[in-house]
């Protein structure tokens, strides 16, 4: 009958190893719980560091995005100004071309007038001094007085002065118009150069706007990603806090169970009947739980198992105690099954099992053991506290 129970226990072990590997044992439960709590607190601290780093990165990204948006606004303003300047330059160039056209027409007219005046003067001179030579001589010889002669001479001189004056005026007008034309053409060249520079500036600003817009889009994507990570971190932190609270609660419950078990009814060791396989099973659980502990620690672990067999709060067999659901972590993890398959228990583990099965205890009626934690008092042996 005891062997059947042991077989059922091994079957239960396989099921537990596959399904309940994450459940927390009670004898080693406190140890596993505290280890998980310590690990959870460590994970929470690391997670908080990640949250802080992510928030810092998010702030930097948002600051950069704000700066880029300000820069984009300035660039758009600059582009508007450059576009307005281009429009003004194009208008000025159009007006300048009209002025040049008018001035060119005026210059052509002045040249024609100057040419006409010169031809007129040339014809008068030709008439006076070539064709009209006899008439002028006759006129001069026909004068009756010296004063008439002077008057005729003054008349001829005035005509020559008039022709010369008009020719000089037309030449001055032509020169003035030529200078005006040259000035207008130079101004147009300058305006054309300004237009080219303004178009280049507009192209440059437009390129910067496109580049800045792309950067803003890129940083927007990075911000979205960082915010998504922040939400994930927040959810993870919430879950971590829940886990920590759960583990703290389980440790408190564990201590309460220990105190309640101390007040439970107990059997005497003489009332217990051990199966043939109990010795090997007990020695191997001792090996799994306290293989690296001093001999006193091995005896103490064996005593805790036997104390549970004697307590009315637990099964009344070694198999029942060890394979009770969620009690020993080596059972849940499968380590005990591996140890039993090759009987890894050392002679000192068997010796400790023999003493425990004989009713020898160095931890009194303690039913639990774990690594020491603050606020938990008991019997300290090796790396465990028994309570």
Explain what the structure shows:
With 387 residues, the protein is mainly alpha-helical. 79% of the residues lie in helices and 2% in strands. It is built from 10 helices and 3 strands, in the order H-H-H-H-H-H-H-H-H-H-E-E-E. The protein has helices at residues 2-19, 29-131, 133-141, 146-262, 278-290, 295-310, 318-322, 329-333, 335-342, 347-357; strands at residues 369-370, 379-381, 384-386. It has a 3-stranded antiparallel β-sheet. The relative contact order is 0.14.
* Biggest beta sheet summary: 3 strands, antiparallel
| Helical content class | over 70%
Order the strands across the largest sheet as they lie in space.
Answer: 1-3-2
By secondary-structure content and strand pairing, the structural class works out as mainly alpha
Helix-strand string: HHHHHHHHHHEEE
DSSP E strands, number? 3
The termini sit apart by 33 Å
CATH top level assignment of the largest domain: Mainly Alpha
The CATH topology name of the largest domain reads Helix Hairpins
How many domains?
2
The averaged pLDDT comes out at: 80
| Radius of gyration, taken over Cα atoms and rounded to an integer in Å | 58 Å
């Amino acid at each position: 009958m005891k062997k059947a129970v042991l077989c059922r226990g091994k079957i239960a072990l396989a099921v537990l190893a596959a399904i309940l590997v994450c459940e927390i044992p009670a004898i080693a439960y406190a140890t596993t719980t505290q280890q998980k709590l310590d690990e959870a607190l460590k994970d929470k601290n690391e997670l908080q560091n990640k949250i802080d780093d992510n928030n810092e990165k998010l702030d930097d990204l948002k600051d950069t995005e704000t700066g880029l948006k300000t820069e984009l606004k300035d660039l758009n303003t600059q582009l508007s100004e450059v576009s307005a300047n281009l429009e003004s330059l194009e208008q000025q160039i159009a007006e300048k071309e009209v002025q040049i056209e008018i001035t060119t027409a005026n210059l052509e007219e002045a040249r024609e007038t100057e040419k006409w005046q010169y031809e007129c003067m040339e014809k008068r001179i030709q008439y006076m001094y070539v064709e009209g030579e006899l008439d002028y001589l006759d006129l001069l010889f026909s004068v009756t007085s010296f004063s008439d002669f002077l008057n005729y001479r003054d008349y001829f001189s005035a005509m020559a002065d008039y022709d010369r004056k008009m020719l000089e005026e037309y030449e001055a007008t032509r020169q003035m118009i030529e200078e005006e034309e040259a000035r207008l053409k130079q101004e147009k060249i300058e305006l054309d150069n300004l237009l080219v520079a303004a178009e280049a500036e507009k192209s440059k600003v437009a390129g910067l706007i496109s580049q800045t817009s792309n950067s803003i889009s890129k940083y927007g994507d990075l911000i979205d990603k960082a915010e998504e990570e922040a939400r994930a971190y927040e959810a993870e932190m919430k879950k971590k806090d829940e886990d920590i609270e759960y583990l703290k609660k389980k440790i408190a419950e564990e201590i309460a169970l220990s105190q309640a078990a101390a007040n439970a009814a107990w059997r005497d060791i003489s009332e217990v009947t051990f199966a043939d396989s109990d010795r090997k099973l007990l020695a191997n659980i001792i090996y799994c739980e306290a293989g690296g502990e001093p001999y006193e620690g091995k005896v103490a672990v064996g005593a805790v198992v036997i104390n549970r067999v004697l307590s009315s709060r637990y099964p009344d067999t070694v198999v029942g105690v060890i394979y009770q659901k969620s009690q020993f972590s080596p059972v849940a993890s499968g380590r005990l099954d591996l140890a039993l398959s090759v009987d890894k228990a050392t002679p000192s583990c068997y010796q400790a099992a023999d003493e425990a099965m004989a009713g020898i205890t160095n931890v009194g009626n303690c039913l639990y053991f774990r690594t020491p934690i603050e606020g938990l008092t008991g019997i300290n042996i090796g790396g465990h506290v028994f309570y």
